[in-house]
Design a protein that fits this description.
Strand order of the largest sheet of chain B: 3-4-5-6-8-9-10-13
Shape of chain A: globular
Helix content of chain B: under 10%
Structural class of chain A: mainly beta
Number of strands of chain B: 13
Oligomer: heterodimer
Low-confidence stretches of chain A: 17-26
Number of helices of chain B: 2
CATH architecture of the largest domain in chain B: Beta Barrel
Low-confidence stretches of chain B: 52-59, 70-76
Amino acid sequence: MVDRKGFAPLCLALASCGLLGCGSEAQVLLLDRICNPDVPLATSQPNCTVAGDADLTTGVTGDTTAVRFGPSTGELYVRLGAIQAASQAVWSLDVLAASSRSEGSTLYRSLSWGTCGSDCPSDPDDVEAPLSDEFQWAAMVTDLAGSFSAPSTLDAFLVLRGADIDIIDLRTPGFDSYYY
Amino acid sequence: MVPHHERLPFGRPIVPLRDTDPTMIPLIIAMQVAPAQPVPPGSPPPYLPPPAPAQTAPAQPPGTPPPAQPTPGQPGMAPQPPQPMPGQPTMAPPPAQPQPPPPVQEQEVTFFGRVEIGFGTRGFAENNTLLDEVGYGGFRFWATLDGAYMFHRHVGVGPWLGMNRRSSRPEHDERSLNEVAYFVGAQVPVLLFGKRPYAFHATPRLAFTSAQIEIDNAADAEFQNTAMFGGAVSFTSFTYHVSSSMAFMHAPTGPPGELGRDHDYAGLYFTLGGTIDG
């Protein structure tokens, strides 16, 4: 119950939420941060590249970046140096994706540390996640060893692969910081 | 025949001296020759009772006492205000009894205008749920302006326009989600019950909407056009110029982005506001 003294602050809080915005605990739109082609790059190479039957498009809004895999297999390459959580000792990554087929699709993940050398962990095994036609968070990296502050090389990539799949976001659970 | 009494100008009766106690004669003469109170200009002439038609006073035998002076309240006689005697303290007239005010007739509301602001939920479409999933919440702020001409006591028609806005900025992110919708349309308020002091309306509404949802990033999102429809229930006191409404509106659109889902630029909201009427 809100007493009389608490009514005015509640109204002010609601007004602030409506006009200025309310805070949220979640990390938001990491895929748009990393892969938006309009964002200036920190390196000479793009953070995201697509191959095969895949293209960069828009997601939940008309100005955010998303990835679509077509009926043939497409691939998304994300440079590990652009994912700041990957430089931690342990890290995880989820993908918000859905199948564009009613019977569902399978999303595959590969990860390569490239020429990082002995400072980086060995390449993990590939994983796969079944997807339905409803958007859901799929865990593609779970508590893997990270580079632990060793600089990731330009040829260290996380690769997502599949067919008839829409990807609208990434998140790194347990990592609260900016991603550049 | 001599009438038993006549009147001087200004209504003072003449008392025949032959019928009077001899000791009172000087006093009566003094009363009759005393200057009368002047009549203010514009005052109506004093009331003189009309003479009885074809009636004459019967002859009085000598020694018969004169008829009694007319008294106020006597049937057929005009009430005479008491004349204060010289030197006698005048009595203040009794205070008038307070009359209860006549009942105020509340006029019917022929037209009204209203401005309201309030807060509500985000939309209920699937894309709104996706935005929740990626971390954007927040309330929607509403500001509306509406009015109606009540062509029937219970039914009216009028414009409805306004805007709503949502802004959400996650705690660890400097980029806000900004969503805004502008709408202009019409409404048909239906008076369910009540009158001008307290009235309850149900109001269907339909409006054209132009809306945009975007993130604070380097790109811009385009506006989407759609229809907004729904209704509101309102409690309004036109007497005190206040109003409160609860509304559920729906402004469905296609996906704002290529891979998004259907979006809704309206929702459930509550507002408070002020009214004018005539």
